[in-house]
Amino acid sequence: MGGGWLAASGLAGIHHLGMENAELLGELAPLMADATIEEIWINSPTRIFVARAGRPELTPLVMSTQRVTELVERLLLHSHRRVDLSHPFVDATLPDGSRLHVAIPTVTAKHWAINIRKHLVKAHSLADLEKRGVISPDQTAQLLSLIMEGKSILVSGGTHTGKTTMLNALLSESPPDNRVITIEEVFELDPHVRDLVALQTREATHGGEGAIDLRRLVKEALRMRPSRIVVGEVRGAEALDLLIALNAGIPGAASIHANSAEEAIEKLRLLPLLAGENLPLNFINSLIGRVIDAVVHLEIDAESGDRFVSEIMSIDWCDGSMQYSHRRRRSQVS
């Protein structure tokens, strides 16, 4: 791959990966070292793409089918997960915190489809996010207040808006005596918390036994003396278990894919119905209104690709209905 295509950070940063990681990543090592690249995906050995500032680019990189297969096998050895005909999809976490997703034939038409979503922003506090322009000083103060008061927070946004980074920063502001339990499909959250237990789901064995899903993990977390329960991303029936846990008086946090703060609440209304327990909507509305205190919504600037919090929406349960109070950001912090 020609040096003219890679950013300088990609060429200069390869040695920072270390020999072991460079060997693990193979041909993708320069792309992983390039700080301007957010995501890498392989559609076929000759169609390898990256995204910079949210925009896709076809790279000149070409790999053989065997090299693509060997790459996935190396990456999955680290994560102790597998992909095969009986498990044609897999999610895993790479050593640097990047997220790997693989799909193989016959689910895909011909080639292995691979996505690596890089974990670029290393923000360990709200102050870090403020320095990067993700949040304003007023928003920093508001979010700190929510965390210190033990409020439950829903982080919303589209793909690549920085929801995981925001959750990490929020949780890192937890009082030192808090015991935080995080629950994810694959490990991504890594907050700076003194008393932290991280849980992730487990696939079934070849015999079809031993699977552990998000719903089970939320229930187990309740037995672990949590001060705060966190679900990395809610997108299914586990939303009901989380809401019930929060209703027991345990503060929590989660992220959800949505295009606005209000849409995040609308989506959270529907997800518990996937549990198949014939729940009335007014019960779910009441539950959400009583246990979710605020929604932090993230967006991406279309021109610069920068992430920022566009609004923080407070929620109050009053006279049998949810009342929203919006605090919108007038402009992005430069």
Automatic annotation (TrEMBL):
Instruction: Report domain Bacterial type II secretion system protein E positions.
Output: 28-274
Annotated membrane-spanning segments are none
Q: Name one GO molecular function term.
A: ATP hydrolysis activity
UniProt-listed PANTHER family = TWITCHING MOTILITY PROTEIN PILT (PTHR30486), TYPE IV PILUS RETRACTATION ATPASE PILT (PTHR30486:SF6)
Q: Which family does it belong to?
A: Belongs to the GSP E family.
Q: What is this protein called?
A: Unannotated protein
Instruction: Tell me which species this is from.
Output: freshwater metagenome
